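For practice. Supply one:
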Amino acid sequence: MAQLWGGRFTKETDQMVYDFNASITFDKRLYKQDIEGSMAHVKMLAKQQILTEQERDEILKGLTGILRDVENGTLAITTEYEDIHSFVEANLIDRIGDVGKKLHTGRSRNDQVALDMRLYVREEVLYTDQLVYGLLKVLQRIMEENIDTFMPGFTHLQKAQPVTLAHHIGAYFEMFRRDRSRLKDIYERMNYCPLGAGALAGTTYPLDRDYTAQLLGFAGPTRNSMDSVSDRDYVIEYLSALATIMMHLSRFSEEVIIWNTNEYRFVEIDDAYSTGSSIMPQKKNPDIAELVRGKTGRVYGALMSMLTTMKGLPLAYNKDMQEDKEGVFDAIDTTTMCLTLFTGMMDTIVFNKDVMEASAKNGFTNATDVADYLVNHGVPFRDAHSISGRLVLRCIAENKALDDLTLDEYKEECPAFEADIYGAISMKTCVERRLTLGAPGEAVMRQVIAENKAYLEREAPSCDQK
C-alpha cells in the first residue's frame, strides 16, 4: 500500500527493508493512545479554527468507530500497515473520505509517537503502583498477624539474633513502599505533553498546546520541541523502577525458596502456587518464586538495552528510538505478572510458627543477650562476649540450646549468672527488650504497623487503571 511519506519516492521500498522498518507488530499495542491523542489534536485544531466544527465532528465519529471496532474484534490491526499511526489514519480516510486527510495537520509522527508512548507509560506507571499497593496490603496483614511469631534473623545466611516474622516482613514493606515513591516521582516528572512539537521544530500552525495538554490530562506542554521528540528519560526511569521492584521481588523470592526447603520448613506454599515433579512424587517445588527470581534478569536487560540505545543519539528524533517499545512492553508484562503471582503466593502462604521459633532457639540467636546479661551484672563486655562464646561452644558439643543449660553449668563459666538468666534469654524477652524505632520489640512494631496502616489509607491508588 502507499505510505504516508511516499510522495518523495519513485520506487517501492524493498520488502525486507519495509519489514525491518515497520513497527506495526508491536506498536499496535498503542492503538488506544494513538486514537486518544488524535481526538485531542482534532478538538484543538477546531478550537483554533484550523478545522471546522463539522470536520472535527466527522473525524471524531470516525475515530470513535475505529476504536470500537478494534476492541470488539471486527477490525484487525494487520501488517498491511507500517505502524499504528498509518493504520488509524488509513482506516479513517477509508471511512470518512478526504476530510480524514486533515487529521495530521500540524502534527508529525515524531511528536505523535512521543505522545503515544508517554500516554501508555503514564498509564502503566499507575497500574504498577496499584499492584505494588496490593502487595503492601498483603504484607501489612502478615505483619499484623505475626507480631509475636519468633524466628531467627540472619546475617551471612547464619542465624544471628531473634526477631519476629512481622519485623522480617516489615523490611520488605519498606522496600516496596520506596518503590511506590519512585513511581510517583516518575509520574510527576513525565506528565507533560509533547504533542505540538512537530518533527523537531514546532509548526507554523497556531496550535494551542496548553489546551491539548489539558484535554489529555497532562500538567502542561513540554518546553522544547527537540527534546520533546527525542526524550526517553521517562522510559529509562520507569525501567529502572521496574528493575528495582524486580530486585526486591527476587530477594524476597530467594528467602521463600530457602524457607520452603526441607531443612528450614518455615513455610508451606499453597498448592495453587506450587508444582510437582514428573518423576519424584514427593516434590512440591516453589516454581513461582524461582521464576520471579529468574525473570528479574530480563527486566534488567530491558533497562540496559534502552540505556545503550540512547547513549549515542544526537538530537532530535532517530529511528533507533523505535527500540523503546519491545523491551519496555516485555518488562512491563513481566513485572506485572510477577507482582500479581507473588502477591497471590504470599496471600496464601502458611508460616510454620513453631518451627521458626525452634530454629531461633537452636541457632543460639540469644547468645548476644547472654553477653548483655553479664554486662548488666558488672562483667566487662569483652569478657562477657568471650564467656557467651564458650557457652555456645559447649552447647554445640552437647547438642543443646542455651536455654537447656542448667544454672550450675552457667555458673561454671561465670559466677555472675543467677536463676533469672532463663527469663533474660527467652525469645520473648530477647525480642521485646529491643524497643528502638525499627527494632522488633512489640511496642515499636505496633507503632510501625499503625503508621503503615495510616500510610495505606492515605496513599491508596485513586482508582483501578486496568
User: Anything to note?
Assistant: The chain has a mean pLDDT of 94. The two ends are 35 Å apart (CA to CA).
